[in-house]
Write a structure and sequence with these properties.
globular, 6 helices, alpha+beta
Length: 172
């Protein structure tokens, strides 16, 4: 898989909104909220051009009954895919365009950490710029090695998440 990081695209929020509407329709009354997360949700942040979407539901088990509806939209249903209490869907194959990370409201910590990182990067553009520069450098260094790319940003992301959660706790 080729690692591609691009400059921020102002179309990303609209791409999220369009997909969020389709997801809400599939999930129906079970859906509490749909959040745009990940790097594409932060203005001016360089990112892999993949829209990350975090729906929050009342009952995670009901999501499994909707797999055919997600498949009809072009998603691959991946189950928990390494994170307990999550349902993960991806669209676009090797040229992935969207990823859905569905959590039940009981997974408050997982939901909070994703939203805290997004909100923190929005509030601190210098942190977003540093993160974007790191991702661009790693994409050049590991153009065909997604594991190398992910390993290269692991320590930064863990520190970022800790700073974001502490900031969110302090500032609400």
């Amino acid at each position: 898989m080729y690692v591609r990081v691009v400059e921020y695209d102002p179309r990303w929020p609209q791409m999220f909104a369009e997909e969020a509407g389709k997801i809400q329709k599939i999930l129906g009354e079970n859906c509490i909220a749909v959040h745009h997360i990940g790097s594409t949700s932060v203005p001016n942040l360089a990112a892999k051009p993949i829209i990350d979407i975090l729906p929050v539901v009342r009952d995670l088990s009901l999501v499994d009954t909707k797999n055919a509806d997600f498949e009809a939209l072009g998603y691959e249903c991946m189950g928990e895919f390494g994170i307990a209490g999550r349902r993960y869907f991806r669209k676009g194959g090797d040229e992935r365009t969207h990823q859905i990370h569905i959590f039940a409201r009981e997974s408050a910590h997982d939901i909070a950490r994703h939203l805290a990182v997004r909100d923190y990067l929005r509030a601190f553009p210098q942190e977003a710029a540093a993160y974007g520069e790191l991702k661009m450098r790693l994409a050049q260094q590991y153009p065909e090695d997604i594991e190398g790319y992910c390993d290269g940003k692991d320590a930064f992301v863990k520190g970022l998440e800790q700073r974001a959660l502490a900031w969110k706790e302090k500032h609400g």
